[in-house]
Amino acid sequence: MILYNVTVKIETDTHDEWLQWMKNVHIPDVLATGYFTENKLCKLLIDEEDGVTYSIQYFCKDMKTLHEYNVKHAPRLQQEHQEKYDGKFVAFRTLMEVV
Q1: Among 7, 25, 47, 71, whose Cα sits 20 to 30 Å from the Cα of 54?
Q2: Residue 74: which of 95, 43, 97 has the closest Cα?
């Protein structure tokens, strides 16, 4: 199983709106692609004055599945996030294998 992790630090003044959008729009849109079997939304337990950091975790069966998602859906979904919150966040992605 592959864990596709997206870490996002969102500015404090945008946090509440962003979190609702993630829960109600973005994450459901990612899951609706059918490539992921489950997800988790985790908040890092650190206090920062300039933002709040989250780990959004998506699980899929293998690298082929993730590659297909990245080709067919990721660019559009990432662009939607970028356009909506441009300049208000930083993000990076990591891949892990569940062992």
Answers
A1: 71
A2: 95
Integer Cα distance of 6 and 98 in angstroms:
16
**Domain residues of the chain, as ranges?**
2-97
CB distance 14 to 88 below 8 Å: yes
Cα 48 to its chain centre, rounded Å, is 20
Q: Tell me the pLDDT tens digit for each residue of 3-58.
A: 999 999 999 999 999 999 999 999 999 999 999 999 999 999 987 888 999 999 99
Query: CA-to-CA distance for 68 and 28, rounded, in angstroms?
Result: 18
82 token code pair: 């970028």
Q: Are 42 and 55 in contact (CB under 8 A)?
A: yes
Q: Residue 84 — φ and ψ, nearest 5°?
A: -75, -35
Reported pTM: 0.92
